[in-house]
Amino acid sequence: MPHSHGSTLPVSSVPDLLKTVIQFPNFKYARGESKEYPTAFLPKVWRGDSTHFDKTPVNENSLFTVGEIKILKDCQADFLNGKLTDPYFERFIGDPKKEIDIENEDLLHWTALAQHYGMPTRLVDITSDLLAALYFAANSNPEESGFVYYFRQNFNELHLSEKVERGSSFFDIETVATDVLDKYPATPADNTTSIIKPSYPNARIEAQKGAFCFTKGIDITAYAGGYLIAEIPAGDKAQIIQDLDRIGYNENTLFPGNYEY
User: Fold this and answer.
1) Which of 47-51, 128-132, 254-258 has the highest mean pLDDT?
2) Beta bridge partners of 188
3) Which residue of 18, 19, 121, 224 pairs with 188 in a disulfide if CB–CB is 3.0 to 4.6 A?
4) What pLDDT, on a 0 to 100 scale, did the predictor assign at position 185?
5) For residues 212 and 45, what is the distance between their CA atoms, to the nearest angstrom?
6) How many angstroms separate the Cα of 102 from the Cα of each of 20, 56, 63, 106?
7) Closest among 195, 201, 73 to 125, alpha carbons compared
8) What is the mean pLDDT of the chain?
9) How far is the first Cα of the chain from the last one, in angstroms, to the nearest whole number?
10) What sign results for the dihedral spanned by CA atoms 69, 71, 75, 78?
């Protein structure tokens, strides 16, 4: 989905964004992007030059590609050798040594973990905290404008806190499989995008008040109903980051953990 600049409002400060969002009732989710990508809401795994990435489906019935499984196996290796540590994940995962493949019931768990520690996946991060979205829009690419999107319509929110098959885990696998993979034959469809809310968020998801858009297809966007509400000029990014830091939004508070990818 291209940026719709005609509806964009300039935002040069934290109060500017708060004044802007008041104009849009029923705020639920937002996303910050630190520059204008050719396609907004495109998962990181599909961005840029991905010619090195193997997009071959694992098999004809699988959503996941060979390249994605490799990324998740790299994530697993880092977890098992201690490079990546996450107490939430350690508590709620099944057998972390079980081979990652499309039969692994923790496949989406591994995908969520990889996403929140910087690895490219088909998930797209969103947040219910508008100021967190502003931070992500302003914190990088200092020479380019950033953008904040408001989720106003066309999404199906999956509440995954009640029905779990094995103890307590990040996702209710049965609900995700039914609602995301089967009920909606394409995500995003023209009228619905599925948003996954982790049942038991890890520290980063919790700090960022995060959720995910889950995409089925290759090289498609994660959300069909986005609305661009704010453009952050490059020259204002540094001051916005300073102001956010004063009220507790910074790298330490939004990215707890000891792992860099």
Assistant:
1) 128-132
2) none
3) 224
4) 37
5) 14
6) 43, 14, 9, 9
7) 195
8) 78
9) 28
10) positive
The CA-atom distances, in angstroms, between 210 and each of 32, 156, 197 are 12, 16, 8
Name the residue with higher pLDDT: 179 or 27.
27
Closest residue by Cα to residue 52 from 120, 151, 139? 120
Confidence band of 102 (pLDDT split at 50, 70, 90): confident
50 CB contacts (<8 Å, ≥6 apart)? none
Condensed to tens digits (0 to 9), the pLDDT of residues 80-98 reads 999 988 887 777 777 899 9
DSSP of the chain = ----GGG-EE--SHHHHHHHHHTSSS--EEEEESS--SSTT--GGGSS--TTS---BSSTT-SSBHHHHHHHHHHHHHHHTTSS--HHHHHH-S-TTSPPSTT-TTHHHHHHHHHHTT---SEEEEES-HHHHHHHHHSS-TTS-EEEEEE-SSEEEEE-SS--SSSS-SS-HHHIIIIIIIISSSSS-SS-EEEEE-SS--HHHHHTTEEEEE--STT--S-SSEEEEEEE-GGGHHHHHHHHHHTT-SHHHHS-SS---
**Is the overall model pTM greater than 0.85, yes or no?**
no
Up-side HSE of residue 88: CA atoms within 13 Å toward CB? Answer: 20
Look at residue 157 in the predicted model and tell me its pLDDT. Answer: 62
